Amino acid sequence: MNFIELSEHVLAGNVSKVAEGTKIMLEQGVDPLSIINEALIPGMNTVGVLFKKGDMFVPEVMRCAKAMSGGVALIKPLLAEIDIPSRGTVIMATVKGDLHDIGKNLVVMMLESQGFKVVDLGVNITPEQFVAGVEKHKPQVVGMSALLTTTMTSMSETIKALEKANLREQVKIMIGGAPVTSAYATQIGADGYAPDAGSAVELCGRFVS
Ligand code: B1M
Q1: CA R_g for the chain
Q2: Better-scored residue on pLDDT, 48 or 28
Q3: CB pairs under 8 A, 24+ apart, for 58-65?
Q4: Best of 100, 105, 152, 191 to mutate for ligand 1, by most ligand atoms within 8 A of CB?
Q5: Which of 159, 198, 156 has its CA nearest to residue 180?
Q6: Rounded distance, CA 152 to CA 178, Å?
Q7: DSSP state string for 109-142
Q8: What pLDDT, in 10s, does the model give residues 114-142?
């Protein structure tokens, strides 16, 4: 099993082959993060290209997503095994109206593997739910993910809701997701943008240092 073969199993939406391939690569001693970055994510990226062209449809995409998540689930416990003292608390969620969670889950996993305590509020999270989450968990960082141009605006609404609740100054706000940019972060008054999971960890590290 190699990266290309595993990536092709993701593209084929073959849940059992992705799980089997991931296990084989782990047994071969391949670095767990490389399996995600060199096989699982590239497979899903190709799915995105085909979906956009109309060569793949929602049920197939969901199957590919399920296959990819199965592989990630096998890797996650290995990353969690690294015992590092907590570097701070991060609330993460996908914003209102948006159900995409694969990227958000990867960011959560990477943050946890790097010593952050992460409270994952889930998907389709309203500004009011973010506010309640900040009140309850008192995080240093709030992370918002959006994959749709139509849901990006919810990030701005959430920041306004945090301001209204007098919580804005207590947290750093990180945003990410395929349509999001650094310019958009500046425009809506977020503290930073991360293009991928690794950058999200670096940004949170800067926020809490
Ligand atoms: Co959706 N979808 N989808 N989809 N989907 C996109 C996003 C789309 C670009 C596809 C396309 O047309 N090419 C398009 C959006 C167009 C737009 O708005 N510009 C789209 C659409 C239109 C839709 C629907 C409207 C389709 C429909 O029903 N007609 C619908 C919307 C549902 C909703 O949310 N309300 C929909 C549904 C779905 C599925 C349910 C089928 C499925 C989601 C399954 C799931 O997440 N559980 C799905 C998928 C899988 C995709 C694509 C193919 C792949 C997304 C993905 O998981 N990528 C996607 C095409 C694409 O992005 N190329 C597409 C892999 C993942 C690892 O990358 O999420 O970018 P990503 O995360 C990265 C970075 O962005 C970053 O780190 C991650 C890891 O490196 N990151 C952060 C993400 N969040 C971060 C937060 C941070 C920091 C970094 O800090 C807080």
Answers
A1: 17
A2: 28
A3: 60/13, 63/13, 63/15, 64/10, 64/11, 64/12, 64/13, 65/102
A4: 100
A5: 156
A6: 10
A7: HHHHHTT-EEEEEEEEE-HHHHHHHHHHH--SEE
A8: 778 999 999 999 999 999 999 999 999 99
